[in-house]
């Protein structure tokens, strides 16, 4: 009998997807009909799985919830421009047609699929495409599928492995390798090669996965697609799946295979030349959609009656990273698909606030199309001004921070409070609360305002975690996720409820009206500042009551733009952060400018409304240190008023306030606009800041603001846990977060941000060294992680250190010999011991070509029909060895949402057009094989003249050096000139003094094979970094150093110039031989048309009479015969021509000559060596062509014997086994001898070296040839599983064209 508690409490399932915190439950109980119905939510994310729980249908199980799937990234695009006509089935199946897909596989297509097509005697035509499933799959799914397929492959090959292993064992038992014959040793090598391939599969290790044949056709009513793999075929060969129309038409979805459980829909674009396979690239998007609107009973989302549109902006090729083009497409798609609300749980650190193409597109969506735009502010806290673009820094977007409530902590995170007492025995404080109870808070990492230009950034907060539905391919129904990515869809669901209610009750809907009601009724959460929570927690019921209260006031639809006019760039708020900003009273001019809905057509009514618009505002400030006028009259085109901010008497720390305006006639409307004011008062400037015994309440963050004194280049922060395990009875670790940020102009916060999580035991100390910029206010946050319980105490010491160079980058130029740098110690004595190393090098590339063209229907702005254009730049370079490289585009990279251009995506390929990797707004390393690398870069803009400016744009290719190059440092110029062991030694640099350091130009022998103008890059550290010092003992990331490579040194040959030999021939002899050579040369240069006219035979016959034994002439004839179209019919003639060449070569003379050592001082012998080397090569060519003819001469009885004899003769002159030019011959030889293991080994080696080039020789083998041969050998061996994989691999390694953008 099982044991269980007598009083088992019910599981709080309602809190798995939290709703109580935002009054959602209360609202739905009061207004069950306003559950989001008649509202469409656009989820701009990683895609939504249409089969996930609660996603496909409404609660009734019939009405579609997910009404469209679109992929805005292009990662699921398939080129279907290839057209073909079906044929009748060759097996007599009258119910099906037959077609060969681009994979080479034959498929049956059911005739009933064309039942709506008009009757015709002609067979239907189809469009064909091909796609690798792994290009669609998320990386975690790829790993799972690969692991399973590897197991299946090993299982299939198990008996073969055992068979070869037994054969190899028997060989070792039968022969001694010291006495074995050559053939016996080759047999062993063959068996070993086979075993290596079967066991290790190092040369076949890449799993191609499923190759999907895409067949698209028009059925008489709609375009339809079938995505076929080997699993989609019944025993009779007929397909087991149904063709799908665009998802929005019939809500169909397919599954790639039973193993992967990857679900997808389809769409068609660009005059049906593009098939879009729409899946998801992480479960993130499905989870987000579930929070917003899943219909799953008690675990439903916030707005279970709303419908969903999946707008995929996470690119599968880029590991779910978004691009500027995917976001732009997504925003435009939201308008085209009729969305009422948009959720964007994406973002990146931005350099500028409210700038860039994405911000302008978002404004069109919000202010023109009345679509509410909700977005996450980011997970980069707890420091201030860590908001992501676009959600946290764009005016028209409502930014949402993440909150975790006690109920969420219990249900979602299984946390417990510190109390161990029963409920009846709890000791309450004076407020009647349990002091040890769980405390609601924002997540430690939830990003915090204000924006860099002082705006709120965070509008509201919402629950930021849930256990909600995820994609089926994860092999689980639900998952816990947390972050502002989860808070945003919660708030978005709340907006959907309000929009649904407004539609039902006939209340005017506008983003300004909805957002103002939400912000004015939000609940301020305890223990959080307005920078963390914005206006507070969304309260749906209160917001709806507010909307009803102001429903008849037309100016509720007016948005008021706020700017500070007398500050640079007219920021949206007042943000004083530097010492000089907060040392005196200041006056600011605030401009309020009403913004009306943008309309396409101007009419008298809208014009008159703007002309007559006037508002009488009452002004107030939420802080006594800000003075404002009491009244303000505003009309269209805006006005300004002045405010006085006096921060002089404020204590060190962060201080926030708002200047707000309310309608004097209708104060119940709340604040109609506000201008945030944030003042940072740093601590007094000191080289050392000590903060002993800091006590941390639950979830508390201590914010310290310090100014690094002049001369600082880094700081050491010491954090010591003050608990005593013995005294406090607590020996557990406590998780602290340390976060520092300095804000630098036109630089994203992350570039000067350091975040560390410290797990400290009682009395444990951690020291962190962090780079700083002197004189710039630095925020230092130390806090307890949100889920950490119990008492937390810590001592904190901030110590500024620094050795200051007189130049921020050490730039060495070829020929400079040295670069002098002066370093200063301004704060304290420092130990210096400069070290400099060059670790990478970069090469400049200019484009080979650049083309500008208009894009398709997905890139047309719906509000003005303006088309976006693309610039495709084509770059090429040679990779000397297999390795990685990073494309760098200084003009464009580093910005995404705030970029003027829409996209800067680079796709990399090898010489065979095989996709290698990507690089987007942020530099990314790409692995490449040796050989040609092709880069295709797409840049997009709706103004083609902007693209014209970039058609000749230089980019850089950055590579790591195989071995770092040390740059020598000296203390004097003379020591640099002498060099040797006189390099600079460790020494103490006294406070207030300086020293000179001379950095030497690297030795040319250490420089890799760079081009002139290439730049080597690295890092220089000036301090010693002694292990006895606290922290790193130096600036952690050092300072940059670079060296520009000069021209290569011209090296003279040690042998000197060879003395020209006197020509002993008579003038007549020289003239006759020159005429002969010219005639033979011209014979070889005859055009194809001239050869076909018989001119070659005629000319050759005439020359043969004059020069019957001249080998170059005879070889020209052999080449001619070997190149004829009817070669296969005249192979005996080719053999005869080859034999004639061979017979006329004095082989004995060649053998005698090359068997002796060449005397390079004997000019006559050197010249004779050159002549005989040419003759030898002519002999080799004749033997090769004869061998190839014998391979093709299958009907001649003695051809195999002659082939062996010819090959043996060829081996007397060249090493055919090590030279790829003879690959066709060696492969044929080993195949005839049944040495297929050696054949595979050689093929693998040739394939790995082949990158866009063939093997060379008389019969060059392309990569396609090599791959096909490898597949044929595997079939010959009976290795079916490997052969099938090879068939797929062949399509991947040598695609017909480049991947689509």
UniProtKB/TrEMBL annotation:
Residue ranges of domain Tripeptidyl peptidase II second Ig-like in the record: 826-1009
A Pfam family cross-referenced in the UniProt record is TPPII_GBD
Q: Which domain of life is it from?
A: Eukaryota
Q: Which reaction does it catalyse?
A: Hydrolysis of proteins with broad specificity for peptide bonds, and a preference for a large uncharged residue in P1. Hydrolyzes peptide amides; Release of an N-terminal tripeptide from a polypeptide
Q: Does the keyword ATP-binding apply?
A: no
Q: Name one GO biological process term.
A: proteolysis
Q: Where are the transmembrane segments?
A: none
What are the annotated GO cellular component locations?
Answer: cytosol
| Domain (Tripeptidyl peptidase II C-terminal): residue spans on this chain | 1060-1131
The record's EC number reads 3.4.14.10, 3.4.21.62
Family per record = Belongs to the peptidase S8 family.
Q: What is this protein called?
A: Tripeptidyl-peptidase 2
């Amino acid at each position: 009998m099982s044991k269980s508690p007598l009083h088992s409490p019910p599981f709080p399932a309602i809190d798995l997807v939290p709703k109580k915190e935002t009054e959602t439950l209360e609202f739905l109980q009061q207004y069950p009909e306003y559950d989001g119905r008649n509202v469409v939510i656009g989820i701009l994310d990683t895609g939504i799985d249409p089969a996930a729980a609660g996603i496909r249908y409404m609660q009734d199980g019939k009405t579609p919830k997910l009404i469209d799937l679109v992929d805005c990234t292009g990662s699921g695009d398939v080129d279907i421009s290839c057209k073909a006509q079906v044929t009748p089935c060759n097996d007599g199946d009258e119910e099906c047609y037959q077609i060969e897909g681009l994979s080479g596989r034959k498929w049956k297509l059911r005739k009933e699929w064309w039942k709506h097509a008009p009757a015709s005697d002609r067979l239907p035509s189809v469009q064909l495409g091909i796609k690798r499933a792994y290009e669609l799959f998320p990386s975690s799914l790829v790993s799972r599928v690969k692991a399973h397929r590897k197991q299946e492959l090993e299982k299939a090959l198990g008996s073969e492995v055992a068979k070869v292993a037994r054969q190899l064992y028997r060989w070792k038992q039968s022969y001694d390798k010291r006495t074995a014959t050559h053939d016996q040793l080759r047999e062993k090598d063959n068996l070993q090669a086979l075993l290596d391939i079967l066991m290790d599969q190092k040369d076949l290790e890449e799993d191609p996965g499923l190759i999907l044949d895409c067949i698209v056709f028009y059925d008489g009513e709609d375009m339809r697609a079938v995505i076929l793999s080997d699993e989609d075929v019944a025993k009779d060969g007929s397909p087991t799946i149904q063709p799908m129309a665009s998802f929005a038409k019939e809500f169909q979805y397919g599954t790639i295979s039973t193993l992967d459980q990857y679900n997808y829909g389809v769409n068609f674009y660009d005059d049906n030349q593009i098939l879009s396979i729409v899946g998801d690239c992480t479960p993130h998007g499905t989870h987000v959609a579930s929070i917003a609107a899943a219909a799953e009973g008690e675990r439903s989302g916030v707005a279970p009656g709303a419908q969903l549109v999946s707008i995929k902006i996470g690119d599968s090729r880029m590991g779910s990273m978004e691009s500027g083009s995917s976001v732009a497409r997504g925003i435009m798609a939201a308008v085209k698909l009729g969305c009422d609300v948009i959720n964007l749980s994406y973002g990146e650190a931005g350099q500028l606030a409210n700038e860039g193409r994405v911000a302008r597109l978002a404004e069109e969506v919000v202010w023109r199309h009345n679509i509410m735009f909700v977005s996450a502010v980011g997970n980069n806290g707890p420091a201030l001004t860590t908001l992501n673009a676009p959600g946290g820094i764009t005016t028209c977007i409502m930014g949402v921070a993440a909150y975790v409530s006690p109920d969420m902590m219990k249900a979602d995170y299984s946390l417990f409070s510190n109390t161990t007492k029963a409920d009846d025995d709890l000791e309450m404080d004076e407020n009647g609360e349990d002091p040890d109870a769980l405390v609601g808070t924002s997540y430690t990492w939830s990003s915090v305002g204000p924006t860099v230009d002082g705006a709120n950034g965070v509008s509201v907060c919402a629950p930021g975690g849930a256990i909600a539905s995820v994609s089926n391919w994860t092999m689980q129904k639900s998952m816990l996720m947390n972050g502002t990515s989860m808070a945003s869809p919660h708030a978005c669901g709340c907006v959907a409820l309000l929009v649904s209610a407004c539609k039902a009750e006939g209340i005017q809907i506008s983003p300004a009206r909805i957002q103002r009601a939400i912000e004015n009724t939000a609940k301020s959460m305890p223990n959080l500042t307005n920078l963390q929570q914005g206006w507070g927690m969304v309260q749906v019921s209160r917001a709806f009551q507010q909307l009803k209260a102001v429903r008849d006031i037309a100016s509720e639809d007016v948005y008021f733009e706020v700017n500070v006019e007398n500050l640079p760039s007219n920021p949206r708020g007042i943000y004083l952060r530097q010492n000089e900003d907060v040392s005196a009273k200041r006056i600011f001019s605030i401009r309020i400018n009403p913004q009306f809905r943008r309309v396409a057509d101007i009419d008298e009514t809208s014009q008159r409304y703007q002309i007559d618009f006037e508002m009488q505002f009452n002004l107030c400030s939420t802080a006594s240190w800000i003075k404002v006028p009491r009244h303000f009259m505003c009309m269209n085109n805006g006005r300004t008023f002045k405010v006085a901010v006096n921060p002089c008497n404020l204590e060190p720390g962060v201080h926030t306030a708002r200047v707000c305006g309310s309608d004097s006639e209708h104060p119940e409307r709340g604040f109609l606009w506000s201008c945030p004011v944030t003042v940072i008062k740093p601590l007094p400037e000191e080289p050392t800041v000590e903060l002993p015994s800091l006590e941390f309440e639950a979830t508390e963050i201590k914010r310290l603001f310090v100014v690094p004194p002049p001369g600082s280049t880094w700081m050491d922060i010491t954090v010591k846990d003050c608990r005593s395990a013995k005294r406090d009875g607590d020996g557990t670790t406590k998780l602290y977060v340390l976060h520092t940020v300095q804000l630098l102009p036109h630089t994203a916060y992350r570039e000067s941000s350091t975040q560390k999580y410290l797990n400290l035991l009682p009395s444990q100390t951690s020291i962190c060294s962090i780079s700083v910029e002197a004189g710039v206010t630095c925020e230092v946050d130390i806090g307890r992680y949100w889920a950490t319980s119990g008492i937390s105490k810590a001592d904190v010491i901030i110590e500024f250190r620094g050795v200051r160079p007189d130049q921020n980058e050490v730039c060495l130029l070829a020929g400079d010999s040295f670069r002098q740098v002066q370093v200063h110690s301004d704060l304290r004595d420092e130990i210096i011991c400069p070290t400099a190393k060059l670790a990478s090098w970069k090469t400049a590339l200019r484009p080979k070509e650049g083309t500008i063209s208009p894009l398709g229907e997905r890139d047309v702005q719906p509000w003005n029909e303006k088309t976006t254009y693309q610039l495709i730049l084509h770059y090429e370079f040679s990779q000397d060895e297999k390795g990685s490289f990073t494309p760098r585009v200084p003009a464009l990279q580093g910005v995404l949402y705030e970029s003027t251009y829409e996209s800067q995506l680079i796709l990399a390929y090898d010489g065979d057009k095989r996709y290698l990797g990507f690089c987007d707004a942020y530099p990314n390393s790409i692995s490449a094989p040796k050989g040609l690398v092709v880069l295709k870069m797409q840049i997009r803009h709706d103004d083609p003249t902007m693209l014209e400016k970039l058609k000749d744009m230089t980019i850089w290719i950055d590579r790591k050096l195989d071995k770092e190059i040390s740059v020598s440092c000296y203390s004097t110029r003379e020591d640099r000139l002498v060099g040797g062991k006189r390099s600079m030694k460790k020494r103490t640099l006294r406070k207030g003094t300086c020293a000179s350091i001379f950095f030497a130009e690297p030795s040319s022998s250490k420089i890799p094979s760079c081009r002139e103008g290439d730049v080597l890059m690295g890092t220089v550290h000036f301090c010693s970094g002694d292990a006895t010092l606290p922290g790193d003992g130096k600036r952690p990331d050092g300072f940059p150093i670079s060296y520009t490579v000069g021209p290569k040194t011209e090296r003279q040959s040690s042998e000197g110039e060879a003395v020209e030999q006197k020509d002993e021939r008579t003038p007549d002899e020289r003239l006759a031989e020159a005429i002969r050579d010219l005639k033979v040369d011209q014979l070889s240069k005859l055009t194809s048309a001239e050869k076909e006219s018989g001119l070659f035979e005629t000319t050759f016959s005439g020359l043969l009479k004059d020069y019957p034994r001249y080998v170059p002439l005879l070889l020209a004839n052999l080449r001619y015969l070997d190149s004829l179209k009817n070669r296969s019919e005249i192979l005996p003639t080719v053999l005869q021509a080859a034999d004639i060449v061979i017979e006329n070569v004095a082989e004995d003379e060649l053998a005698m000559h090359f068997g002796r050592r060449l005397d390079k001082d004997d000019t006559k012998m050197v010249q004779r060596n050159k002549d005989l080397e040419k003759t030898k090569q002519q002999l080799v060519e004749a033997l090769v062509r004869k061998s190839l003819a014998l391979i093709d001469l299958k009907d001649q009885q003695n051809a195999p014997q002659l082939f062996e004899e010819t090959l043996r003769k060829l081996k007397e002159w060249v090493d055919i086994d090590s030279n790829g030019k003879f690959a066709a011959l060696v492969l044929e030889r080993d195949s005839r001898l049944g040495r297929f293991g050696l054949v595979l080994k050689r093929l693998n080696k040739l394939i790995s070296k082949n990158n866009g080039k063939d093997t060379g020789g008389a019969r060059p083998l392309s990569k396609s040839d090599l791959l096909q041969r490898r597949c044929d050998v595997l079939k010959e061996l009976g290795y079916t599983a490997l052969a099938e994989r090879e068939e797929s691999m062949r399509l991947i390694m040598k695609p017909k064209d480049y991947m689509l953008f």
